[in-house]
Amino acid sequence: MTAVTxxxxxxxxxxxxxxxxxxxxxxxxxxxxxxxxxxMVTAFIFxxxxxxxxxxxxxxxxxxxxxxxxxxxxxxxxxxxGTTMMFLFVIPFIEGLGAYLLPLHLGTRDLPFxxxxxxxxxxxxxxGIFLYSSIFFQAVPDSGWFAYVPLSGPEFRPDLxxxxxxxxxxxxxxxxxGAAIELIVVTLRMRAPGMxxxxxxxxxxxxxxxxxxIVLAFVPLVVASTLLEADRAxxxxxxxxxxxxxxxxxxxxxxxxxxxxxxxMFLPATGIISHVVQVHSRRAIVAYPLVVVAIVVTAFMSxxxxxxxxxxxxxxxxxxxxxxxxxxxxxxxxxxxIVAWIATLWSGxxxxxxxxxxxxxxxxxxxxxxxxxVMVASVxxxxxxxxxxxxxxxxxxxxxxxVVFPFFAGLYHWMPKFTGRMPNHGLGHVxxxxxxxxxxxxxxxxxxxxxxxxxxxxxTFPRDLGLDFVNLLSTVGAFVLAAGVVVFTVALxxxxxxxxxxxxxxxGGDTLEWSVGSPPPRENFRTVPAVADRHPRWxxxxxxxxxxxxxxxxxxxxxxxxxxxxxxVLDAEPESVVYLPRPTAIPAISPVGLVIVAxxxxxxxxxxxxxxxxxxxxxxxxxxxxxxxxxxxxxxLPEVDGEVMDTSGPRAIGWWGYASALAVGVSGLATLVFSTxxxxxxxxxxxxxxxxxxxxxxALVLLALVVAAVACWRGSxxxxxxxxxxxxxxxxxxxxxxxxxxxxxxxxxxxxHLLAADLDPGRHAYESxxxxxxxxxxxxxxGAFAATAVGLLRISQYGxxxxxxxxxxxxxxxxxxxxxxxxxxxxxxxxxxxxx
Amino acid sequence: xxxxxxxxxxxxxxxLPFVLLGPAIAWLLxxxxxxxxxxxxxxxxxxxxxxxxxxxxxxxIVALNVVLLGVTVVAGVLAVSVYRAARxxxxxxxxPLAGPARFVGMAGVGMAVLFGLGIVLIATTPVVVGAC
Lengths: 836, 132
Hints:
The complex is a heterodimer.
Chain A: H1 12-16, H2 25-28, H3 32-60, H4 71-106, H5 114-132, H6 161-189, H7 202-233, H8 247-281, H9 288-302, H10 317-347, H11 354-376, H12 379-385, H13 389-419, E1 421-422, H14 425-451, H15 468-498, E2 500-501, H16 548-554, E3 562-567, E4 574-580, H17 589-603, H18 606-631, H19 633-636, H20 653-681, H21 696-716, H22 729-756, H23 765-797, H24 803-835
Helix pairs in contact in A: 3-4, 3-5, 3-15, 4-6, 5-6, 5-17, 6-7, 6-17, 6-20, 7-8, 7-9, 7-20, 8-9, 8-10, 8-11, 8-13, 9-10, 10-11, 11-13, 11-14, 13-14, 13-15, 14-15, 17-18, 18-23, 20-23, 20-24, 21-22, 21-24, 22-23, 23-24
Chain B: H1 9-48, H2 54-86, H3 98-128
Helix pairs in contact in B: 1-2, 1-3, 2-3
């Protein structure tokens, strides 16, 4: 391999991974460490901003009948505080930490789709800036971070505040879903050779479970946001009960996202704690398989608990009891992990380092929050406590105790790896005690305040309720907590710039990231490691003859392009080489376009939205052209010891990208179907027969979509030979071309079918749903069209390789999904009204 | 218990997803279908102004959960057999995939127990709480 493109000067592998230079260098660096660091720094800044908002609220509540800030400002503060902490701090920070650490944990050189990772970061950054830009237009969101309708709907919030919230959040959610896809694929397909399922580090297991939850649970919020924005911007009536809509639909969709989100935050935190407890107790975690089981069980069960946020909405008692049973069940899984950590501490040789202090603080605090969680999982108790400060205390115990403490533990634990410098021990301990004591002083009294009748989300309280002292105590505690956060931040900044050299492994860690330099080199591992033990740094090392082909290719190679091995899911056997793209700033273009579209809609400057669409398309076209041009290098490379450089089907990383995209699509479709059926059964004005007449047009749409899917599938089966580049090319071109024509026909016919029905989406929720289904159908067709067009570009411009087959396989899958989408729409809008 | 090995590609592709994901999907179906069937039938009856078929609804939900519990038990039994197949006598030479197979077996048993318990909790609620 080294003969392929040996260069002069410096090591050729290092040259391939060099940092980009020039004016756009910062935007162009797409490696996982660079993007992960940006995520974490941006999220931490949002954390500090959200914390300041909390302090202002606590000042307002420090004494009764205070007029420090008025009710409107208080509403804005608690909305932006919750939104910032949940959407702009915790989730992005987790994604950043995962993006940085997972490749290092897994022994690979980068995430599978580095440019997509960069694109996601810009979506997040611009989404956050867009949300905060509402301040300059005096339209700060104030309907709560949960945005319940009708309060957030067009009737009660006719200004732009909730539009800023909805568009900002959609951008942030797009980023979260994309980051989750990266983490799923890297974990399943890019582990170091030998890292079988039973050897995966616990933080990686936690991130895998989290990423799967994000793909399934975050899509409903994107759909819900689309429905609400449609109600606000174009006058649909999904949430208007007078026209067949239902306000509870928002609560269902929001909490189908919102409850798993609690565990999306909590599970990575448990992964961090497992590492910290393990390394700083100097023994392997007790009951590793049971901890993995607990992670998986928690992830699945979290998907089914959303109704326990809706106990006071008037649902039938039996429905509530199903969710009480489920809520109780999940406590078992959380308990398993806590017992494992305590047993590890008990049987190990713990060091009271700063990360360990935060880990112990987490265990104490989270157990308290978990106990109140079991209390509020009980319907009778929740009905009493639901709108009180008891709930505020409970969820801050869960979120600060269960997430922020582990984050701080993790930051102190991995800061030497990130920066190559040691954080200050004394400052760390001071920060811990301030944070720990401040937190409990702030939030423990709020349990009593709630039980004594203090309502939440209210800007003040009367003097005669007897709540003066507990509120003052909470405010004092909040400021002590804030002082701890300031000390912690100072410790991190000092570490980054002036800390003492840390060395490669200051803690005696067990996982692969401690085997490389601090900070890690650009390519992570000059020689890709092989793994023979769950604790690669503590346990046995692989034999000298373990995977010799891997050693041959990945010992200071490959050279000429950025490469890393793809391995099988169960046993991590090397299967192919992943081609990783080079730096470019192109992924930043489309997120700019998304913001322009949103700004145009908000200002009703539709020419601006059109310009935004052009920018989005331009970004994607440039991206695709650049990708395919660079990827053509793979056509020229020889096979090495039977190692296929370029492949298709499940062995290819791209195939897993398509599969993840399909999972997102299926989740979105399921949400649309659920929403429409929910509205149908909960309103007595739903039409009893279809308003979409005729069968010919729907049948033609279906036929066109099936033709597109079959054409791509058949095209993907055409084998091409390097010795005869022209053979098979025309078949593949024909297949892709036919699919494009059929797809355009299907989109046009679907729109004609909708227009022929003369529906008014502002008249009834059924008609709103019809508009949304057809809009969604066109979007799905556009996605499949774009994928097919990229395939066509590839086939027409470059030589024979497996990649055209892969692109056509992905396109076929997307066209097949378009078929399923159309059939689902037909069933829900045409068949069900006459049946149910 | 029949001993099932994970060493063949066929058994891996068929068994692994069922052992690891079967109980989880059974639990999700138990909760989701119980909720959807109950809530939608009650709501549809109320909207139409007719009496909901309460007895049939309760029997149906319990029956559904018994079936799903059965699926979970089968997955657990298979997980036990996977674990047993992967156990090696002390003097036997190491086999490929024995470690992952043992892990899959243990994890499968754990998940069958936890999700099975969850299904039992959901199944018993229609017996003690009135429908609609």
